[in-house]
Amino acid sequence: MKYISLNDKAPKVGFREAVFNGLAPDRGLYFPETIMPLPNLFFETIQDLTPEEIGYQALKQFVGDAIPEMALREIISDTLSFDFPLVAIEKRTYALELFHGPTLAFKDVGARFMARCLAYFNSKTKISNSTVLVATSGDTGGAVANGFLDTPGIEVVILYPSGKVSEIQEKQLTTLGKNTNALEVKGDFDACQEMVKKAFLDPGLAHRKLTSANSINVARWLPQMLYFFLAYKNLKSKGEASNVVFSIPCGNFGNCCAGMMAAQLGLPVSHFIAATNSNDTVPRFTVSGKYEPGVTIPTISNAMDVSNPSNFIRILKLYENKIQLLQQSFSSYSFSDTETLQAMQELYKKSGYIADPHGAIGYLGLKKYNGDNDYTGVFLETAHPIKFKETVEAILSEKLEVPAQIQELLDKKKQSHTIAGYEDLKSFLLGNSNG
Ligand SMILES: *Cc1c(COP(=O)(O)O)cnc(C)c1O
To answer: Where does the Threonine synthase N-terminal domain start and stop, copy by copy (predicted)?
Structure first.
């Protein structure tokens, strides 16, 4: 299986090259050239399969011969070494909790899978080491740093905006040490991202073999399919797998697009709901047919503050760019901060469930969906509420318990380098090139 570029002006590549390139040379996103549905038997017996087996069956066609079976199985089982529980909220309504990984962020799975794939490729080539360079507005940095920690042959450099990430997020980025480096930028996230882009185009840094680990990378995007397969398996064991509707809190739409890819492989899902905060480019598109990104609006669900979601083009591609076809299995709604806070209160009062602002938006999406009544609704809870401690405690008038792993982290000492601009980044990368 090869990957094509959605801009159509770059050569087809295999999985390995798609992972190293991140983006195709024509700036297009990579997309699988062919998608082969899994056999019916797979879905009929899914409740008897291990997560590793499910992951292997789902991912093998996308990896092709880039990684042999044994190594791929090992990567998958290592990636999935924590739980993805389905928590009952109301009758036929579940929260799919994706925050039980090492950084309590749902991005852990994508970051861990990508790290292990790169480590495999590096172990086979024995050429010089590569550097993963990434800009973060908060959650991505921690998941990437943790995912790549101790990965042989890989140096990690993370840029984050000084004073603009939460204390927990900053500690997650800055306390790991070893092969991870945190660069604190006097500026905002856009400034960080600008510098990263510049470094990728700088011939003076070509020998550093820079790799991006952002969410458009196929190795971060595709393993997210497994959330949907594992949730389906779980629902099937409970006898609730008929007519499943997923509601996904969306920012860059990678997670949602992964779910829809799982459906292309044959996963029986009745409908997908993409729930957004006030950054409503896609909800507006589903009504007007016009894709018009606005200015990004800051919200309390800040990991979803994206006005031009990179992965939406992949969703359109899955539906042959036909909006009527898309609408049959996809709806998208936007919710304000006020509605989000009300949903958090409602969930807590009615069901005793503590949701973070992102999960609450997923819940709202499910409530708004007006499908036939007899369905099982699953909303994705993408962050542990402790990561949004102030917001959650204020709206629920409750104190949250700090999980042991977070307390341990808060007691650690931050290690970072402050950089003022691009020249500082470049000299850091050059000075750090002995590895
Ligand atoms: C990244 C993120 C999202 C959005 O996921 P996308 O795949 O970008 O749509 C939602 N919630 C949390 C907590 C996140 O970190």
So the answer is: 2-79
